[in-house]
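Technical appendix A lists one of the benchmark inputs used to test multi-chain prediction within the project. The record comprises two sequence entries:
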Amino acid sequence: MSEKLQQIINKQHKTLSGDDVKIDEVIQLVGFIVGDEEFSVPILSIQEIIKPISWTRVPQTPSYILGVFNLRGAVIPLIDLRSRFGLETMKHTEDTRFIVIKNGDDVAGFVIDRLTEAIRLPKKDVGPAPDTINEEESMIDGVGKQSDRIITILKVDKLLERNF
Amino acid sequence: MDEFQEILQDFLVESFELIEQLDQDLVELESRPDDLDLLNRIFRVAHTIKGASSFLNFDVLTHLTHHMENLLNMARHGDLVIDADVMDVILESIDLMKALLVRIRDSGEDSGLEVEPCVLRLDAVANGTAVPASAPVAAPEPTPEPVVETASSEEEPDYSGMSEEEVEAEIERLIAIRQAEDAAKRARKSHDEEQKSEPAAPASAPEPVKAPVTPPVAVAKTEPAAPKAAPTPRKVESKDEGEGRGGSAVEQTIRVDVKRLDHLMNLIGELVLGKNRLIKINDDVEERYEGEAFLEELNQVVSIVSLVTTDLQIAVMKTRMLPIGKVFNKFPRMIRDLSRELNKKIELEITGEETELDKSIVEEIGDPLVHIIRNSCDHGIETPETRLAAGKEEVGTIQLKAYHEGNHIVIQIIDDGKGLDAEMLKQKSIEKGIVTEKEADGMSEKEAFGLIFRPGFSTAAQVTSVSGRGVGMDVVKTNIEKLNGMIDIDSEVGRGTSMKLKIPLTLAIIQALLVGVQEEYYAIPLASVLETVRISKDEIYTVENRSVMRLRDEVLSLVHIGDIFEVERVFDNSEHAYVVVLGLAESKIGLIVDSLVGQEEIVIKSLGEYLKGIEGIAGATIRGDGGVTLIVDVAALMQMAKSVKSTVGQESAENKGRVAAKSSASDYCVMIVDDSKTDRTIMRKSIEPMGITIVEATDGVEALNILKQGDHNFDAMLIDIEMPRMDGYTLAAEIKKYNKYKNLALIAVTSRTGKADRMRGVESGMVEYITKPYSPEYLMSVVKRNIKFNEGL
């Protein structure tokens, strides 16, 4: 009996530690579409995802900053990722979402065209950003490859960095 | 280590508190050098700090305070007369002590400051006057008769001359007397004493003897400091006072970390927002369910909640209030130093030091006041000779007043010096290139006084160490603006100057005026709003490209809020405008807005790291409806107003410019609005040969949307009257509401031929009326005429 128990414990132990290793190797991302491309950010950097609500324009800011909105009492900047990426702006649709991204004390909401899914991606499938992009300026952390598609992983700190 | 930190904290807090009172006492002491109470109090400060610092191993501080104590002790016994020179040395040493304490607070060490010269001077003063230090100290020793006297003698170094038995006997007697002393206090003090004895030289010599015997005795050493040299009745009195302070103060006050108060204030802020929202909802519900029984109850609850919230807010605000005396306390000393330095005779009168205001404001207000008072001393008050010659009293007076006025605190600094000379100020400013001659000519006296706040301005012919370096007064302005305060200067040449600072009581929750511009709203801190006026557009004049208006006997420069905040002005249908007159520090400006929404209590929230420092925006607040409203930074707005090109009443010029910019036929753009596809095709075919751009819409709503999107700059629209959703008349009326479409030619193309229809067309803003059927040529010529086709090519 005790032998059996030992076995079970051992087995459980194995799976546990095995899982640990796996978690280490897998990154979890949330994918979304802006324009024609699929982007993603680490799931842990996302505070929440909400449907579009009204916002207030803030003067003297670049056009990609739509303004600020009220998220349960906190005033949060709202950034339009389409115009941030130099794409044409589009009217909000049924699928439009605000992704509230957090990095330390910096918080901002980003307008995206639509969500795709939560992605688990083995670390080995993530390649570096293309060399042609200036390392310093780039908002791209890496490129994830999945069977039929590639996903651009964005640098959260760059997204939340003020550049005006 | 933690324990040590704790003790160190207590020590610092205590020391700074003691020092605060010290300056006041010292200046008083100079006028009443023989006031023993005062002397004793000052002595005790030096003594307490010496004791504690030796315990904490701050040798430098101990060394310094020890010598101070010596000197003060002599004065206390009447062996040293305190004159101005002695005072200077004492003050110097106290400054040094403060500096050391600050160092300890910041770095935890008391090294790095040179105290030796000061110590030498202290000793020199002590020795140089009459008898060497040891002699007078020795004197009281052999007079053990009255209890009081003995108590005092205990402190002198000559104690060491006593035999051990004598000392012990003395100690025992003292214990009996001091039995009533508070036990805790005793224990703590004794600790101090124990430690102190080692590094401290002669004065504490007897302590090592006492301490080992029975620790509590040490109390006797500190406590009698007050009563010692004084006659018996006074002793009792001061002792009572001391106990009263120790006992009741401990029970009635609590030290709270400011962070906790800040947190509390934040929570209250949230509550106020909630309250505002509740009130709004209550109003809505009231409207909807008028006359229902539950409304009464809801009303009651809402009003109770709102009442309690307001009370709570006031209560929490009060916990953050400090008397302004905290700031005022340092000025007597400053005036004293300045008057000696400048060889002037100046008296400071302080009133209203008990007036309370928010801690954060108390912290900010210190520097500006220092600058203003320095300025008054240096530039305001004349030298005694000049004053006498001018028939004034030899001693100049500076009055420092604080009092409440509504939701503001007013601090007034009045001197009876030479006053400001408006002409001289203008002259100076022109010389320094701060203003042009033209600007100076147009300035009123008040505006000229305001020049002293300009950066780079200094009227002093000579730069002194006190002022005249060209910095200072503009710092005053910046700081006061930061607090949303206002400055008002009044001055009369030869009679003096009065400077009035008006500052809001608190910063976190403010009253604001909500204004609307187009579809946006902004909140302006009510503290900066002087008044609002409704004017008609023809009251706005343009002077040198700037809009101004006449407000009573003043000329007020105007700026449109839309120009400052880049608000797109889509409609402009009113002949009237509202002007919000803003006042900040010493300047005024009129802000044109489209509408006044009302007054509301708002909680200031920051825009966060990402958007901080946006020019003209001080923060944001959340309104009752959950939306975000931006708060105007009045100081920045005034700055921006200087550089913003005013467009008040200049819209038409812009439109002309647009027409002139055509260079080819396809730059012309015409919209065809008709629900019938056939009709649209006929129209298009008719005007297509011109080579102009043509856009089609199937009804009024679509047309309006296309227009609003702004992809094309339309020159004309061909509009059918009978259309679903929105007919032609309505469409025309809608379009004409927008200011920027004033010049857009609207041409009705319809089968309605009645005169009444034509009239309606004209009323709704149509310029031409074409009845179907028509020839293509006719239509083309009408369009050409209306869009001035080819004229601009």
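Chain A has three helices and eleven strands. The CA atoms of residues 63 and 83 of chain A lie 7 Å apart. Comparable benchmark entries are summarised in Table A2.
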